[in-house]
Amino acid sequence: MTQPNNKKSRYCTRCTRALKACLCDYIVPVENQTPLYILQHPNEVAHPKGTASLLAASLKGAELHVGEDFSQVDWLNELLADPARRCYLLWPDEEALSLAQLRQQCELTSGSHLPIAFILLDGTWRKAYRMLQSNPMLARLPRIGLEAVAGQYAIRKKPFPDALSTLEAGYHLLAQWEGTPERYAPLLTLFNQLNSQWLAFAEGRRR
């Protein structure tokens, strides 16, 4: 993600966007205390409006992995089987704990509290659901959800009003969990720049 750009390529090796639309000047490294693992559907890799690569490039404690079937991926199986860490999947459904409930659980078990890691699926709602169904070890993870927040993803169709981009989801998840929204403010600045860039492009095409 941080390699120098290849002068023969039209794409940035850091933010993965076209060089003429590179957003690296707006990427501010952020030290997240809670590790974040982003599992990206292959269809999202080259999507020009995607935000997962921007999130991964901004967070020092984040990893971005591309795939659809992770059932035989050693690093993920080892992570999920590690007794020294507890992983939670960001997935809003009836079974999902709120962050407040998760924090309460941690406080009740403070004597034996394990370090936490978050897993985030990057893809359309349909693709993300298919990823979940294709990976039983992910489906078995305890799930967490975010409080309803208005998403600002103005450049891509949302499946429902509260839907968030991957970058927004990462921001709200870490900012709410760690209680330091000011630390993660650069993520929103980057996201707003992406929106502004695309809206300006669309306006230019209409003229």
From TrEMBL:
Occurrences of domain DTW (ranges): 8-203
Keyword Oxidoreductase applies:
no
InterPro entries, alphabetized:
DTW, DTWD2/TAPT
Q: What class of enzyme is it?
A: transferase
Single GO molecular-function term? tRNA-uridine aminocarboxypropyltransferase activity
Q: What EC number is given for this enzyme? A: 2.5.1.25
What Pfam families would the database entry show?
DTW
- Per the similarity annotation, which family is this? Belongs to the TDD superfamily. DTWD2 family.
- Name the chain's protein: tRNA-uridine aminocarboxypropyltransferase
Q: Which organism is this protein's natural source?
A: Aeromonas enteropelogenes (Aeromonas trota)
